[in-house]
Amino acid sequence: MKVLPVKRISRDTESSSALERQDIELREAIALGGHELVHMVEDATVSGAINLDERPSLGEWLTEPRVHEWDALMVTTQDRITRDDMHWWQFVGWVLKNDKSVIVLDDPSLDLTTEDGRMIAGIKATQAAKYRKTVQEKKLKQTAYYREVNLWSGGVWPFGYRTEAFQFNGSKRLRLVKDPYTAGLVREAYERITDLGSSLSRICADWNARGVLTATDYQKSENAKANKEEANTKPRGVRWQPTILKTVLISPTLMGYATHKGNIVRKDGLPVQRAEPILTRAEFDRLQEALAKLKGSGRRPFHEPTALAGLVFCICGLPLYSNSSSRKLANGTRREYHYYLCAARFSDQMCEHRVSWDRQFLMDSLESYFLETVGDLEIMNRAFIPGRDRTSEVTELQGAVDNLTQAIASAESATAVTALTQSLERHARNLETLKAMPVVPSSWQETGTGITYREKWESQPDWDAKGELLRKGGFTLYCAGTPAAPVLHFHMPENIERRLELRTIDYRPEIELRDGIPYDRESGAPVASLLKSNGHRRR
Fold first, then answer.
1. pLDDT value at position 442?
2. Could you give the angle at the alpha carbon of 20 between the alpha carbons of 18 and 21, nearest 5°?
3. Burial 445-478 (b: 16+ CB within 10 A, else e)
4. Are the beta carbons of 428 and 477 closer than 8 angstroms?
5. Same-fold call for 2-138 versus 149-295
6. Residues paired with 7 in a beta bridge
7. Which position has the higher pLDDT, 391 or 506?
8. Short-list 290, 289, 284, 287, CA closest to 271
């Protein structure tokens, strides 16, 4: 008989042993029975509530053309087929209609061709369904309770956090804490996007090159380091993509808030603080604004960025994108041309500065400006010092006070009024405390490295490394005019400008960026609008 053995588990925690045990039992049964093994079907971490034809592995064996390749479906226990009684009866009807057999190792007498056999199997299916629902209800209640007392109920760690064991009411429980490694990556992404104008694509390409693991794979890797035998420890090798990174960066969990189905969990109108924040509320809001601007920038679909990605921009404010072409020469050979175009070329936006810039010209210009302007400056390590600003918390708490005041006015029960009044008084006291706290702005602490930018530049092996040095430093080049008469503006972060001003009293950069658009410092007008009338000089 041609047998299709089927393995299934519902949870990651079973994967280290349950699948292996099923595999051994099924193979031994096939060998003892003298059957032919068609294919070992495995559906890992697939709930018994999912219908059979919707399962990733089993589904294809229930339809054309593979449905004709086997005679009997074999499982170790009946509930490995399904834990849903309605799905079971649908499956029984399908089995009889398609002249298939079912072999259950722990119930060798199972016979779906007889009424008594179907009745007994149906009772077992109903019991399995009731058990699944009981477990599900218990899990939901446990999750709700854990959420109420800020315990971790399981699942994938939010990126930037990990679990920590501690004693809670005499039992060992888990809670979320900041993970030093991934929390650092979140701050890196925040700074590159908000301060340096980097794109999600560039960060993803960089993280993939550095071997940074996505949230699920990182957790599996940490499980392996901790030798957690009952946990899944095999990373899938998922690579970072802009959509994955954006999902991480728009999550309120970065502020340490508890969430449920993507929404912030609130208590008495205020967000529940589940863990120490990675980003303050002000930083989180700033990041969302920066991400919104990236979304509307007219950029092309994701592709692997080049060495100059995120460094060269059109004077209209849009990035320059790489392109290439070839031309056949008179001697029969072909010459390759590598150049950069304004991103407006790839969107519906209009830009009058649509010229092609030779790649080597841009590289030479960047190198020249960079070394002439900041080459002799010492590279400084910058450490972010979080400030203390309770403005956003005061606003949220004031909103909660207003909501409670309205609720008290409309409450009909004396008990409800008492409970609401107590919450209102507690919020009012907290509000006064927050208002009295001093505002301490965030700052950066700089320490010298003893290495100049020129020394660092000359030590880089290629332009990929040099481009990354420029990106991390926040240096960019804005291009206008034509290749024959270029008007180029080299831009740098404010902290570098201040250091240059201290060294050179007459130093004053020509442009400043406002929402990614270069403005002339002297007139305050967009540089692009002044080009025809003023013709800015090339520094």
1. 72
2. 65
3. eeeeeeebbbebbeeeeebeebbbbbbebbbbbb
4. no
5. no
6. 42
7. 391
8. 284
For the stretch 248-305, pLDDT in tens is 999 999 998 888 777 887 776 677 888 889 998 888 988 998 898 775 444 444 445 6
> 2-138 belongs to which homologous superfamily?
Resolvase, N-terminal catalytic domain (3.40.50.1390)
The mean pLDDT value of the chain amounts to: 82
Tokens at 307, concatenated = 């060495």
Q: Which CATH number fits domain 149-295: 3.90.1750.20, 3.30.230.10, 3.40.710.10, 3.30.70.20?
A: 3.90.1750.20
Could you tell me the residue ranges of all domains in the chain? 2-138, 149-295, 312-383+445-534, 390-438
Estimate the crossing angle of helix 414-436 against helix 391-410, to 10 degrees. 160
Number of alpha carbons in the 13 Å side-chain half-sphere of residue 287: 25
pLDDT digits (tens, 9 = 90+) for 173-231: 888 899 999 999 999 999 888 877 778 887 888 888 788 999 989 998 888 887 765 55
Residue 524: left if φ>0, alpha if ψ -120 to 50, beta else—which one?
left
**Is there a contact between 342 and 351 (Cβ–Cβ < 8 Å)?**
yes
Alpha-carbon distance of 349 to 319, in angstroms, equals 13
Q: Do residues 352 and 482 lie in contact, with contact meaning Cβ atoms separated by under 8 Å?
A: no
> Minimal CA–CA distance to 320: which of 295, 342, 288?
342
List residues bridging with 92 in a β-sheet. none
pLDDT in tens, 344-392: 766 556 677 767 889 999 999 999 999 998 999 999 887 767 667 777 7
The C-alpha angle with vertex 281 and arms to 185 and 251, in degrees rounded to 5, equals 55
Beta strands 41-43 and 161-168 are unpaired
Whole-prediction pTM value? 0.52
Own/partner contacts of 127-133, CB < 8 Å, gap of 24 or more, are 128/48, 128/78, 128/79, 128/82, 128/83, 128/85, 129/83, 129/84, 129/85, 129/88, 131/83, 132/48, 132/49, 132/83, 132/84
DSSP letter assigned to residue 250: T
Place of tokens 């004693």: 167
